[in-house]
Amino acid sequence: MKKLVAVLALLTVGLLGFSSLSLAQMSHGGMKMEGMKMETKDVVVEGVKVSFMVMANDSHKKMLADMKMKEDIEPGSTHNITVTLKDEKTQKEIGDAQVSMKVVDPKGKDQIKTLKYESEMKSYDAYFNLPEKGKYQVMILFKVGDQKRTAGIQWDVK
């Protein structure tokens, strides 16, 4: 419990301190995959490009099936949130980070999870429950080596 409180405190303090920098450098992109669109939002934080991708579970399950990958969708969740970390200069993926995510819904209720690294996808992800339309705050605290950084975006569920 103390560890969860510490992570939450670091995440909150870090996001308050760095949110203006992170959000100022945000860009939007997207890619299409056979009949589905996956929107991404990118943030650059202290030399690390953080890409956020949010996908409804139905679309995520179809994407995994198309790629011949199997994954059990977490019961009670509605969306998969994936994060990739890249060194901004070298464009090399960062696969050895510790990543925690906090998602705050439009009513202020939060969910906090540790993301797992998917080596085949070179990304970190977890399942979250985003059941209602509105603006969600998606924030991460990630540690690479002994450096901790934060990044965040706002995601609209329509």
Fold and architecture overview:
The protein has 158 residues and is α+β, with helices and mostly antiparallel strands. The protein has a single domain, classed as Domain of unknown function DUF4426 (Immunoglobulin-like, Sandwich). The chain is 21% helix and 49% strand. It has two helices and ten strands, in the order H-E-E-E-H-E-E-E-E-E-E-E. Strands 1-2-3-4-8-7 form a six-stranded antiparallel beta sheet, sandwiched between helices. It has a four-stranded antiparallel beta sheet with strand order 6-5-9-10. Strand 9 and strand 10 form a beta hairpin. The termini are far apart.
Features:
alpha+beta; globular; 158 residues; Immunoglobulin-like
Structural class, by secondary structure, is alpha+beta
Low-pLDDT stretches:
4-35
Tell me the CATH superfamily: Domain of unknown function DUF4426
The third-level CATH topology is Immunoglobulin-like
The beta-strand count equals: 10
Number of helices: 2
CATH architecture annotation:
Sandwich
Biggest sheet, in brief? 6 strands, antiparallel
By CATH reckoning, the class would read Mainly Beta
Distance between the termini: 34 Å
Please tell me the overall pLDDT.
82
**Elements, N to C (H/E):** HEEEHEEEEEEE
What percent of the residues sit in helical stretches (DSSP H or I)?
A: 10-25%
Global geometry: globular
Q: List the domain count as a whole number.
A: 1
Strand order within the widest beta sheet = 1-2-3-4-8-7
Radius of gyration: 15 Å
Proportion in β-strands: over 45%
